Amino acid sequence: MxxxxxxxxxxxxxxxxxxxxxxxxxxxxxxxxxxxxAPGGKGANQAVQAARLGANVTMVGMVGExxxxxxxxxxxxxxxxxxxxVMTAKTAPTAIANIQIQQTDTETQNRILVVLGANxxxxxxxxxxxxxxxxxxxxxxxxxxIPEEINVYVAALAKAAGVPVMLNxxxxxxxxxxxxxxxxxxxxxxxxxxxITGVTPEDEQTVAQAVAKLREMGTQNVLITLGSRGCVYGDxxxxxxxxxxxxxxxxxPTAAGDSFVGAFCVAVAKGDTIEDALRFANCTAGLTxxxxxxxxxxxxxxxxxxxxxxx
Length: 311
Ligand code: RIB
What we know:
Layout: E1 5-9, E2 13-20, E3 34-40, H1 42-52, E4 56-64, H2 67-78, E5 82-89, E6 95-103, E7 108-115, H3 124-127, H4 130-133, E8 139-143, H5 148-160, E9 165-168, H6 177-180, E10 185-186, H7 190-197, H8 204-217, E11 221-225, E12 231-234, E13 239-242, H9 256-270, H10 274-288, H11 301-310
Parallel strand pairs: 1-4, 1-8, 2-6, 4-5, 8-9, 9-10, 10-11
Antiparallel strand pairs: 2-3, 6-7, 11-12, 12-13
Helix pairs in contact: 1-9, 9-10, 10-11
Bound molecules: alpha-D-ribofuranose (RIB).
The site of alpha-D-ribofuranose has 15 residues, from strand 2, helix 1, strand 7 and helix 9.
């Protein structure tokens, strides 16, 4: 089977993770349970996930000239991602995310506050080399943690070269029409879909409306992730549903969306059917939520294949 070549142009972020049963209100102090750091960033997470699932992955992005930056590059390399185009900014530190994991007896939730640092320093001139090389890739992955002008530029290059583009529009921000017109796939979660379309996808009807709206805006195929309710895929002809996969107790939902997107792109780039790609992505994300941290929780191909046997 073909090994897909995947290009990720996106963010690298060091995650600073605290766990607690309750987080403070304004003006209040509370005692937390644990603190840890883990490599993250939506772009880097998607790159690592795709590499752990067997793809050849190249990452383009920017870190600061500091220890976090080096740790993030090392984490990518350890998973086999090509980091030759991860650049170092002189003018900003490596990005960090403050991640709060609230663990109660009944549920685990996360909140993420990301400070984009060096990711915001990426300029079109830094990625213009892709003009000569983008045609080598089977798919390009973009997210919303780098400047919008980069996404617009890279998506247009990919489209002109006939390379499919996936945008994971997270964190949500308005999407310019010239970007959406270049997208083969868009994969928002339910919150992002609501912010972008104005329709909250909560039942059959509103899910179909949100998918239709995103297609009207110009993207070819729409993939909305709905947490424990699985996902919906719309291509204008039909609406496919694929259930989430329960792989055990939820420890930390961080990067579930990244593992889903990374896995889906590997599968479609390999030539899998959309149904199979959705099932593969749901199995991958199902495993991700069972471990703490972003890149520390992303599963290998062998682990996903084990889950696939019983689903
Ligand atoms: O999608 C999860 C990621 O979002 C985290 O790793 C954090 O870095 C933020 O960018």
